[in-house]
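#structure-requests
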Amino acid sequence: MSAYDPRKVLRKISNSLLKQLFERIDDSIVIDWAAIKGQDIEPIYNALLALPDQIVLKVQQVLNDVHGLSDHCGIAIISDEIATGYPIYMPIYEKLEGEHDRVLWTYLNLPEVYEEAARFARVDWYASRSYWKRRAGMPKVKLIITDELLDRFAQELTAYYKKLQLRGKQCVVEHRLRRNGADYFFAYLDNYSKKSIAFEDGSNDLVVQSQRLAFENVFVYHHDHGVLEMMADGGNDVWKALQVAFGHGVLGKAVDPVDPLKPSYQLDHLLKHNHPLDLKPEDAIESVRISQMRIEPIGDGASCLIKIKSTIPGDYEIYSRIKSWLCDDYFGPAKSHLRQATFRIKFTEDDPGRGKSVSFSVSHPSSCNFRNFPDEIQEIVERCLERWKVINDP
């Protein structure tokens, strides 16, 4: 997602929805909407500049958040939430043109969907980062969520953080069940006190403010597979302690902590010329190709990056380039390793939850960049990688 620019965001939203937003925030805002032609946002922008600072701040917050949710991940979550939870609104939603219109319309008409989408989009972003960890072998327990369970889990977290880190004395745990059946736990704990310099409201006076902000831990439990995923700041000691806390607080069972899982990716076999990338009809994929390879000769720390920009669906041009450009005695399949590959998948259909195509990279031994994709796309990618004998997840 590109950086937030208020003018660019205003241009991407229809005037009718902007009018509703401004009236929702403050009905005293005066803009001659009938006089605005097309996407001429200067009258809107100038009117915004003339408003009191507090109103401008509210508008900016909404526009910034809308922009942040207007990527493929946010749109996929919103579309799924509406399709499954509020299908009566789908005909209206599908007629909206542009991602920003769809997000703002959701904010105005289905605020509960908007809030859930913002929450899950943030988690999906976390899941693509190195501090997101995963383990298998958890007890498989079908959870019944109660206030007592959430309070018990909060107490477990407080007991750990208060004793060892002198924070986390207050804790609130919230639960959400996602459409894929996973249980999400959002734990908010009080952090160390921090001082900041800020302007007093309505003046140019600087004051020192002391705040005790919250920090967040996220736990995702897949009861049918016995898998726990977690986002928490800290090293291996924290990861192990929080596994134990989750077992006691949520599952009501003693859990032996283990090191996090890392997927193992095998890529060398893709160096064989025209290696087939089989597709299945249920994945609705029109074509797939490898657009980039990083090849490393055995016993040599150097590597060569081959990148193509072909638009021909499902072609094997990258293999032709390797054969033409690289010495087979040095870079041949038997004498080199494939350390990274970038795939480009083109889908047969284009709906609100699935774009026309996606690109993603996989690196040996255990790195990838598709963890922030929507659930449906992630599942398709993982099925494909297993079918192509790339993924070997324990």
